[in-house]
Amino acid sequence: MTKTQAPSDPQTSRIRKVLERLWERPAILEWIVLFTIILMVEKFNISMPGLLLFVMCVFSPRTLEQIAYTRFVESPTALAHRKAAKVVRDYGVAYIWDIALFLVLLGAGFRFIGSEQLLATWEWIGYTLFLLGVITRILALRELGVYYDAVISVQAEHKIISSGPYSLMRHPLHFGIMLQTIGLAFLNPIWLGLPAALAAIAVSCYLDRYEDKVLLRELGPAYGNYYAQTWDMIDLILRKLPTTQAKQ
């Protein structure tokens, strides 16, 4: 039996749940970033073309991800699945993702509006990684559908998704947000971009490993077989977990 979290203050739990459901929506971060940049444009009289470029190149792809989220994982059936799920770990350290992504989004915005220079080669590489991250998450959301959850949970009718990006890797949603953060880090000064990228990698590896352990224990050989046949970034750093620990 998987240990669930210890009971906490009801008010705190409600606030945490609201925050989880708020911050899991991809568009929230960039709307905050966009309004911040607009205020800075007005204050420092920065020209508008760079702002429009930021909206087209960064804001729009993230908005497409929000549309995918709304279409694929916000149906009444999906919400019912998540409500009935047994939460093993709440959003927790994933807030580090949000902070890191928020900072590099903000930094990328100022790169677009604060410099008239064309993107350098390494910045184009970073932007390409960002777009790959967005595409990866959209494809993963489409495959997950009603089985999506922002927290690590085990659903009553838990299904192992092995189609789309899940046919190759175990946690494409995590991988996608990591790619977005690393990619945008290339558009930031090194003192901001490097810590943000390292934080995204660390959180992704930690949550991937934790989720693998939970699913091996809860779903047994079915997940063990899937685990053995797929790849994840954590496999480059640590040995794969023994599938013998899967619950029989």
Explain what the structure shows:
With 248 residues, the chain is mainly alpha-helical. The chain has a single domain (10-237), classed as Four Helix Bundle (Hemerythrin (Met), subunit A) (Up-down Bundle). The chain is 67% helix and 3% strand. The protein contains 9 helices and 2 strands. The protein is elongated.
Uncertain ranges: 1-8
Structural class: mainly alpha
Total domain units: 1
Distance between the termini: 12 Å
Beta-sheet strand percentage? under 5%
Largest sheet: 2 strands, antiparallel
CATH architecture: Up-down Bundle
Radius of gyration: 19 Å
CATH class: Mainly Alpha
Tell me the helix content: 55-70%
How much is the average pLDDT? 78
Number of strands: 2
Named CATH topology = Four Helix Bundle (Hemerythrin (Met), subunit A)
Name the helix and strand elements from N-terminus to C-terminus, one letter apiece: HHHHEHHEHHH
Multimeric state: single chain
Q: How many helices?
A: 9
The largest sheet has its strands arranged as 1-2
Explain the layout of strands and helices.
Blueprint: H1 10-23, H2 26-44, H3 48-73, H4 76-84, E1 86-89, H5 94-114, H6 121-144, E2 152-154, H7 172-185, H8 190-219, H9 221-229
Antiparallel strand pairs: 1-2
Summarize it.
This protein has 248 residues and is mainly alpha-helical. Helices cover 67% and strands 3% of the residues. It has one domain: Up-down Bundle (Four Helix Bundle (Hemerythrin (Met), subunit A)), CATH 1.20.120.
Using brief descriptors, characterize the structure shown.
single chain, 248 residues, mainly alpha, Four Helix Bundle (Hemerythrin (Met), subunit A), two-stranded antiparallel sheet, 9 helices
